[in-house]
Design brief:
The protein has 141 residues and is an alpha+beta fold. It has one helix and seven strands.
Length: 141
């Protein structure tokens, strides 16, 4: 009896699922690393309000920046991609000295300098050359 294994619907379905996984998983991971889409899950230490940011030249990072009109600051917390809190503090717009309004709070990258942390915000059309937040008072993390 000659049975063609590939004619079985179960075998064909299994092969299609396997092919989809082999193709989709690497595409999904690269999409996260390039900042095309956020991961489906987040580390337990990162709140739901935090935004995932990744790109070609910098590591995936989670940001939670808010607007505090009373203190005129932007309290921000920054986590690594695996959920380790790297920095928490208050920030203001560089060269302006006041808090960024909520519509500008779209972090793109951060830098550690001798004066503290700098957070670059996305500019128009999601360019990374937007305004910059500078740390005012670092808080222990």
């Amino acid at each position: 009896m000659n049975v063609n294994v590939l004619s079985s619907p179960i075998v064909r379905t299994t092969l299609w699922v396997l092919l989809a996984v082999v193709i989709c998983v690497p595409v999904y991971r690269e999409g996260i690393l390039l900042g095309v889409w956020p991961p489906l899950t987040r580390p337990h230490s990162v709140p739901r309000e935090a935004t995932h940011v990744a790109g070609f030249k910098f590591a995936p990072t989670w940001y939670d920046c808010r607007f505090d009109p009373v203190k005129d600051v932007n309290p921000c917390r920054i986590w690594s991609g695996d959920g380790k809190l790297m920095f928490a503090g208050d920030f203001r717009l560089e060269d302006v000295g006041h808090a960024a309004p909520p519509e500008l709070l779209r972090p793109s990258t951060y830098q550690r300098t001798s004066e503290g942390i700098l957070i670059d915000l996305y500019g128009p059309n999601k360019t990374t050359w937007g305004p910059r937040l500078v740390s005012v008072t670092p808080r222990p993390n």
